Structures are given as C-alpha cells and as structure tokens.
Amino acid sequence: MQGDTLLSERQVSMILFKDNKQAYGELKKAKKFNTFSSILGFAGGALIAIPVVAAISGGTSEWGLAAGGAGLIIASIPFDRIYKSRTLDALDIYNGERPTSRIKPSFYFGGTRAGLIVKF
Description:
Elements (H helix, E strand, L loop, with lengths): L8 H11 L1 H36 L6 H32 L9 E7 L2 E7 L1
Antiparallel strand pairs: 1-2
Helix pairs in contact: 1-2, 2-3
C-alpha cells in the first residue's frame, strides 16, 4: 500500500526497479515461484475437471486423474507461500529493514487459562 492506495504487483515492480535494484531482484525471484505455483494449480484443476466432466456426461471416469490433480494442487501450496515470503522480504529490503521471520507468536491469558498462538 502507498498511503491509502493499494498498489498492483506491476506498480510495485516498477517502483522497486527504479529505486532499489536489490529489492527488485528479490521480487523477480519471488515471481518465479508464483509462476510455478500457478502452473501446478492450473494443471491440477484441469486434471480434476477431466473425470468430473466425464462422470457428468455419463462416460467412464478415471478418478486417478482427480487424485493426481489434487496432489498437484497440494504441491503448489508451498511455492505460493515461498512467493509471499520473498515478496515481503523484497519490500523489507526496499524499506531499509532487515528481512525477518514472519512467525508471530503471541500469548493470551483468560481466567484460569493461558496459551500461545503462533501465526505464520
């Protein structure tokens, strides 16, 4: 965000390219993970759709394809998380901060209970 305006990924990329080459390089690395995650997710969705469409149309369904598609979608999740983490690291570099861990532990106390919440 810039003030109250939400910037697109392209706008952030242009700002980083002009002002901070190191942050721009980190963002380019992050985009590669995003592309790979998107390809895996799309391929997984297509593999799931094939047997579902075959079942709806009355044909023989190959449910192994759906299982493989689900596996591809699950495999795309870590790449998406890496993309988000590296993008935040690029913004930290641009803002002059040292990239830090995104794990945010917090404690809570309520009555006779106490606990720890860890957010990623």
